[in-house]
Request: fold
Amino acid sequence: MNRVKNKQKNKLKYLSGIYVFWMIVFTVIPLLLIIYFSFTTTEGKFTFENIKNIGEFTPVFLSSIKLSAISTIICLLLGYPFAYIISKIKASKQMIFIIFIMLPMWINFLLRTYAWMTLLENNGIINKLLSLVGIGPVHMINTQGAVVLGMVYNFLPYMIIPIFNVITKIDKSCIEAAQDLGANHVRVMTRVIFPLSMPGIVSGITMVFVPAVSTFIISTMLGGGSNMMIGDLIELQFLGGSYDPNLGSALSLVMMVLILISMGIMNEFDTGEDVMAL
Amino acid sequence: MQQKNIVTLENVCVDFGPERVLNDFTLSIKDKEFVTLLGPSGCGKTTTLRLIAGFLEPSEGKILFDGKDMTGVPPYKRQVNTIFQRYALFPHLNVYENIAFGLRVKKTKEKEIDSKVRQILKTVNLSGFENRDVSHLSGGQQQRVAIARALVNEPKVLLLDEPLSALDLKLRKDMQVELKNMQRETGITFVFVTHDQEEALSMSDTVVVMDNGVIQQIGTPEDIYNEPINAFVADFIGESNIIDGIMLEDYKVLLDDVVFECVDKGFEKNEAVDVVIRPEDVDVVAPEKGMLQATVTAVTFKGVHFEIIADVNGFKWMIQSTDISYVGDNIGLYIEPDAFHIMKKSAYSGMFGDYSTFSDEIEQLSDVNFGEIEGNADE
Reply:
């Protein structure tokens, strides 16, 4: 018996070996390369110059964080009530709503963003419709608003789904217990449902904020050149005119650290007891 | 104990779709009383509780609280509190905050909340547990928190939905005693739901036996046990041999072609009746001394007594005796006149009281089936 077990263990070891190999080749080594490039010159000499140079781009970092934070908040404000409402309807109808939320995600990301371009352009569909009623043209494309709109549109499902999943799992008898103890609908919401859906909110925020802060397609297509984000900046260092992979690596490294910090802060809210403070 | 009625249900009916789960239910609950709703799963007892709590509205009839109509009043405005079957503690709050929930919602002063919560924690023997996470408590402790959370609001009526069903036997027995003591000390009316007849008998002032959404019998535990109204109640409360009989005249009943003396009267001459004989009231004697002759078909040792299944003219009786018998023995049965309880025939006649298919396993199996039925009806 023991031998058979050991054999199985060995087999499992070999199997996990494949994944370890995969992770080393495609995660660990690239990460080390990024760190290496961040701290070297084009000639391969050690330097802090790249990290120091990032200081110049502080405005880009700040505006990226600002725009993605605004988008995340809008996603939360729109997504939470929506997730709550669909959690209340019949299970059979829930599926239809969920499919409609997911549907745009099955269409190519680029295509969706292109569609918004044609909608928002100065002589785009929206402005044409507005001119029919004598308004406009309203300048919408290449503004910060357009970038936020693009982010909200693209990332809203990532906010709704985790919140919906958590709300549907809240024990109904907890809600009844709160009513039983004298809580009206508002109190039930603020004191029971909202705190209990905190894990969903946290993962929703993470799932919206992280891709939003590093996006470059949305800002390029809807924001024009004037609303550059970190993602655009990094892209420029590798594919654009200002070719500088060392600076690009340093930028990626700093962004990764920023994301890790923000996720760490979010996770602080994810423990049941701290939620009380809200 | 002449008290005013605190909760009254008048001709209440509840329909879930086409199904009527509570039919013409009329019940008055007196102040400071311990009332138990007893019945198999799916009989409508939890539905009744939810009606009083306000989670359900009756399709017909009305519910009065202190004489005032409560129809349409939402749960949070009713002076009742509920202890839920699986406690329903708030997982995001610690013990203290769980208990303080009701007081905070009512905007009680912080100082008052603190003294009340600490007082009630002492009552339920959980002092020092204030900052514990509720998910780290044992079942029994969670149960106490649930009780404290309800009692701290000083409700007029406390509703308990099978609160002990998740506890193990020993703990359940202890909690039965504790709950009963708490009820006496606080003077709060308890409406207790259970399917455990022993629990109902040992705790209640009044037992309401229900089946299929209809009240079968209301009475004190003694009444319910000694004077069951029909075969369902006789079978559900304790063990019963229920035999077809004919009431020849007052104090004389014929069963198995033997005329027995009994203490019942008031039936028609030669009226067909159901005769209940409790297993503990049957004495095993030598065959020639017995009023009835029987053959032992099964014997189980139960600790306090032997449980004997004996065949009397093809009808299997259950007998509880401290003397051992062996399978195949011919025995005589002797029954005192006051051991007979005569019931009028009902819809339940012939459905219960024969032990020919009896075994512990079958009992459990049928419980499971009932459970599934309830799952559908109580949703």
Summary: Chain A touches chain B through 22 residues (CB under 8 Å). Residues 32 and 38 of chain A are 10 Å apart (CA to CA).
